[in-house]
Each structure stands twice: as structure tokens, then as C-alpha cells.
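May I ask for an example protein's residues together with how it folds?

___
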Amino acid sequence: MSSSRSRLCALIAMTMLAASAGSAHAFGLSGIGGRIGSVDPDGRDGTLAGGAHLDFQKAGSQFHVQPNFIYWSSNGLSDANPNFDLYYHFVPSGRVSPYLGGGAGLHFYGTDGPGDPGSDVGLNLFGGLLIPSPGASFFMEGRYVASDRSQVALYGGVTLPLSGHGGSYGHRSAGK
């Protein structure tokens, strides 16, 4: 258990260092949203999963930083899963676009009965389709999590833009 905690602390430290390596103003909070879908965790029945995210984007960039949280529960086992993901959309904001991304997540498992199922670190790989509209950006996403309890998931979700920030989800920014 001690080595798991050491790995967890190391991952958190590396993530914070990577996030602060660039300019403090490089990415601005551009949206907030949620997701719902189906997850198939290794060794458990498929189940409903839900989550929320913040979306950070540098104005004029197609790269996004997206810290998020996903939760699921199946047959007495649950996973509370904070993630730090990065993704790239291939077409400028305001147009339908495929995207690919990756990141790291922490998995805090819980059970209905006695015993502690523990925690682990996971690698997130995902891709999907962004669908802009005038007041939001919708997405469909497939996600694979490589961890001690690997997971495959399909999600649908929405990101609502925050006014006055870099993201141009459902509309074209001036000059684009």
C-alpha cells in the first residue's frame, strides 16, 4: 500500500509541475460541463457513469486541458476518479471536429462490504467528436483506461462556455 501512495504522490507532483511549467496565463478557463455514459470495468458488469469537467483553452489554440471527475458503481464496487486530461481537436473551434486525447487518473475504489479495495493510477486514452451549437459544445467520446482495473466507456456530454474567456465553442471568434 505504501508504494501505491508513493506513486500517487509522485503523479500528483508531476502533474502540478507540468501544469505550471508554461506561462501562468497560457490557458484560461473557457467552459464547464458534464458527461454521462456507460462504463465496462474489468471484472464487473457494465454500469452507468457520470462526471463533470472544467475546460481550459488558450485563445486561438486547438489544445485543451481538462481536469475532470468521473464516478461509477457496479455490484458493490465504486470508483471515484479524478483525472487530468489533455486533448486536441483537429478543426478550429466553431465547427464539428474529431479529437484525440490522453491523461492520467487516480482511482479510489470503495466497497459496500468490509475491506479496502485500494486505489491505483490509470492512463486515459480517448477520442471523440465535438459538435458545436450556439450556446454549448456537445461531445461523444470513447475512452479506455489502462489500470489495475481497466475500463472501456462511451460518454455523451456538454460543455457550456464561460463568457469573456478564450473558448469559442458554438460560435466562430472574430478573425477565424
